[in-house]
Structure formats: C-alpha cells, structure tokens
Amino acid sequence: MQKAGACRFFVLSEFNYFLAQFAHPSILIKHGKISKKELRKTRFSLVELLSAIRAAGYPNIQDLDYVILEPNGDLSILPTRLLLI
Fold first, then answer.
1. DSSP H helix total and E strand total for the chain
2. Which of 10, 48, 52, 81 is deepest in the core (most CB within 10 A)?
3. Which residue did the predictor score with more confidence, 13 or 78?
C-alpha cells in the first residue's frame, strides 16, 4: 500500500510540474483598474476578487498597484507605494 501512495504522490508532482510549465501569472488589477478581459480569461469572478482583496485589508482597489493571479491560484496583492510610506 505504501508503494501505491508514493506512486500517487509522484503522479501528482509530475502533473503539477507539467502545469507549471504552461501556466503563467495573470494581472487582474493594474494601477487600480480591473482587467475584465483577464477575469474572463482566468474565469475568476469579480465577487471573488473583491472579497479576497478586502480580506487582505484593502477595501479600495485604487490603493492597489497590481493584483496578480499566480499559477498556483494565489493572489499577489501589491499596494501603491504611497501606502507603504
């Protein structure tokens, strides 16, 4: 049984490696403006995006320089430099 589990892990690892080769980050918000084209392309809903941004502590999207959907499904939220000062 352990051998089957190890094999299954190997297959999942190979699958993730395969996906990582073709996946690329998508810029969902650039300079405070939402890219509806990227939202459609990534099938990421506007409600999910705004909810995740609020949960990260940014209620106003104009305060964000970039929001990037990473290949692993995580969001990278980069605030404007004025907020960092």
1. 4, 4
2. 52
3. 78
